[in-house]
Amino acid sequence: MRLSGTEESGPGRSSAEESGGGQPYDAVILAGGRAERLGGADKPGALVGGVPLVERVVAAVRAARAVIVAGPPRDLPGVVFTREDPPGGGPVPALRAGLAEVTSPSVVLLAADLPFLEAAHVAELLAALREGGGSAGAAGAVLVDDTGREQWLAGAWRTAALRAALGAYEGRSLRGLLGPLAPVPVRLAAGAAPPWFDCDSIEDLRAARVRAGERRERA
To answer: Helix, strand, coil shares of the chain as percentages rounded to 5?
Structure first.
């Protein structure tokens, strides 16, 4: 199922030079999880710094030619919405649904709960994808955290490589799908708020709100 937030063009489509270094890309944001550790709450809609998590992630890919959210429709102008089958079926079916809407040669794959991811981080992932892997080129580039762990929902990929991998994959693990593609690891300075920080629990959400400078935490 495909729905559009509005009939407007995608966020920041006229400013591709700003965040992609001129490299055309689409973005797929996975926002259809069940959020069991948040008691089934609407995690993508949770506020950090007064802005829903999913909107913060959409802002980080404002230079994408198309922004595709795999999850329930929301009032986000220019965003294309699609759903995995069945809804809540997990990240691999959600990626499959999102990738069906991608037309650019490169795609940025992100979770919807990364409150501190910024356009500059996306640009570094795309640069690593473009430059990495030697003459053959890299299939992908993924963010790694300060422990060296790959963040599979914070990466940039060659669309053709991702489609080929999905076509041959019957499992349910995102790591099982993406790991064999040997993506380039991208290590970024954490700064005050690590771009890989995700909000999996109430405690994570409270910590994100504190980092964002909120005076009062919301449970």
So the answer is: 35, 20, 45
Contacts of 13 (CB under 8 A, 6+ apart): 63, 64, 65, 78
Global pTM value: 0.86
Q: How far apart are CA 10 and CA 27, in angstroms?
A: 10
Closest Cα partner for 126 from 110, 144, 142?
A: 142
pLDDT in tens, 77-119: 999 999 998 888 899 999 999 999 999 999 999 999 999 999 9
How many CB atoms within 10 Å of residue 33? 20
- 46-61 burial by CB neighbour count: b if 16+ within 10 A, else e? bbbeeebbbbbbbebb
- Structural contact between residues 193 and 117, judged by C-beta atoms closer than 8 angstroms: no
